[in-house]
Specification:
This protein is mainly alpha-helical. Helices cover 52% and strands 5% of the residues. A three-stranded antiparallel β-sheet has the order 2-1-3, with no helix packed on it. The longest helix has 22 residues.
């Protein structure tokens, strides 16, 4: 039997006024269902940045190989440019992650009238990415998959 693990970490100080205001703003801007979806994006960003910081402590030979792996992964998702450096990874924000979600990309491509309409299309299994039906609005779209998005 598979045991599901938590895929997000809640903020250390969740009741600060400025944090609450920023979270509400991001939820409205990207059409998220609840704060847990936002916290998942923060966790993804936190893990990427931790991996990049860990690279800075390695020797040159170890670092080059691991750095190239991380850079290729982030280039595939369109989070950094082709000429990106490790400083670009450390400068990523949660909005960069949220912009790569299927829900946001579907709205930006004008395939849906609003973010909430995009979410509904995805939840009702009307969106195809490549040759697969995707039913998760939080699906992170790779750069080469953008032109393969269709509505059936």
């Amino acid at each position: 039997m598979r045991r599901f693990r938590k895929t997000w970490e809640s903020p250390r100080h969740p009741w600060r006024k400025e944090v609450l205001a920023q979270e509400i703003e991001l939820i409205g801007k990207y059409g998220l269902r609840n704060k847990r979806e936002l916290w998942k994006a923060y966790t993804i960003l936190r893990r990427i940045r931790a991996r990049a910081r860990k690279l800075l402590g390695l020797t040159a030979s170890e670092r080059s190989m691991e750095e190239e792996k991380l850079m290729n992964l982030l280039r595939r998702y369109g989070l950094i440019a082709d000429s990106g450096k490790i400083d670009d990874i450390l400068a990523l924000t949660v909005e960069d992650i949220l912009k790569r979600r299927l829900q946001t990309i579907l709205f930006e491509m004008k395939m849906a009238n609003s973010l909430y309409h995009a979410r509904q299309l995805i939840a009702h299994r009307k969106v195809i990415v490549g040759d697969r039906v995707v039913s998760s609005p939080s699906y992170l779209v790779k750069k080469d998959e953008e032109e393969k998005i269709k509505i059936r």
